[in-house]
Design goal:
single chain; 324 residues; mainly alpha; MetI-like fold; 2 domains; two-stranded antiparallel sheet; 4 strands
């Protein structure tokens, strides 16, 4: 190559650069005012479409919750105008004779529900996820179909199963010579009977959460553990559980909150009895508000439950946060 009348030798890098065609940059046409207006109208229209849903959620979810938080500071029977009560109703509840048995029963139900949910549903998800494809698909359908059943149907079925005279459980116990107790009227078995509802406790949302988490574990890690000769039990405790900690956190929070809120089985099966062996704060709130027409006192109990659930959720989210 000649440069200024002289012969110049180019190295390969310079030669390749000299052969590259110069890049051209096309100028983008300026955005017109009409285009900006169309984009603004499109974004505003999406907000307008969401407005009815937001209004309904605010009306039927947030307003009752806010009304309950405020109503605990007022005496109100549902008819006469509310009168200011301050903290007197909260003091009345926390100094009542019911607070101790209710707190004890609630603590046992929460701990029992969380342990039952974690063990049964995690084990079921582990087993199903490692089955062959066709049996795994069949098991998924069989274990998830009961989730769509109304809870009242499940409670009615267990009311029959636990019937002391002609219930299926006592009939089977009699065939093998075991005792046939009065499950729902025995002071020591009534709370256990409430926890038995739903046995084997697999068909629940926690099963789907664990199953989805296991199926999305990194294949490279699972393959590496298999090549290293890690057994299935060691893999579960050293690989699966640590990597599924977000799923464990969600299931613990949902199970705990559900155990606190769900008083329907107790209401229908024992109504808090025998004595106060199955009485819980949520049932006390319901009875105070809708049976005794003491809505202010019921809202005070509801506010105390809300604070307790909030503290429980924050502690669970803190303790079960992922370490990796």
């Amino acid at each position: 190559m000649t440069r200024d009348g002289k012969l110049v030798t180019l190295n390969p890098a310079e030669a390749s650069d000299s052969l590259v065609a110069p890049q051209t940059h096309e100028l983008q046409p300026p955005t017109s005012a009409w285009s900006r207006f169309k984009r603004m109208v499109h974004s505003q229209s999406k907000s307008v479409l969401l407005l009815p849903s937001l209004l309904l959620i605010g009306l039927f979810s947030y307003y009752p919750a806010l009304r309950s938080l405020i109503g605990g500071f007022y005496h109100w029977n549902g008819f006469s105008p509310p009168t200011w009560a301050g903290l007197s109703q909260f003091k009345q509840y926390f100094t009542s004779s019911m607070i101790r048995p209710e707190a004890r029963n609630l603590l046992l139900l929460v701990i029992g529900s969380i342990l039952i949910t974690l063990v049964s549903q995690f084990v079921a998800a582990e087993v199903v996820s490692h089955l062959p494809k066709r049996p795994s698909t069949v098991a998924k359908y069989l274990l998830t179909l009961p989730i769509v059943l109304p809870p009242i149907v499940l409670i009615d079925v267990w009311a029959y199963l636990l019937n002391p005279t002609d219930g299926l459980i006592n009939q089977l116990a009699g065939l093998v010579g075991l005792p046939q107790p009065n499950w729902l009227t025995n002071n020591h078995l009534a709370l256990v009977s409430i926890l038995l509802i739903g046995f084997p406790w697999v068909s629940n949302l926690g099963f789907l959460i664990f199953l989805g988490g296991i199926q999305n574990l990194p294949k490279e890690i699972m393959e590496a553990s298999r090549i290293d000769g890690v057994g299935w039990l060691a893999r579960v405790f050293h690989v699966d559980i640590p990597m599924l900690m977000p799923q464990f956190r969600i299931v613990v929070v949902l199970s705990g909150v559900y155990a606190v809120q769900n008083f329907i089985p107790i209401l229908l099966l024992t109504n808090g009895g025998p004595g106060n062996e199955t009485m819980v704060p949520a049932l006390d709130m319901y009875q105070s508000a809708f049976q005794d027409s003491n809505y202010g006192y019921g809202m005070a109990i509801g506010t105390a439950l809300f604070v307790a659930m909030l503290i429980f959720t924050l502690i669970a989210m803190r303790l079960l946060r992922p370490r990796t």
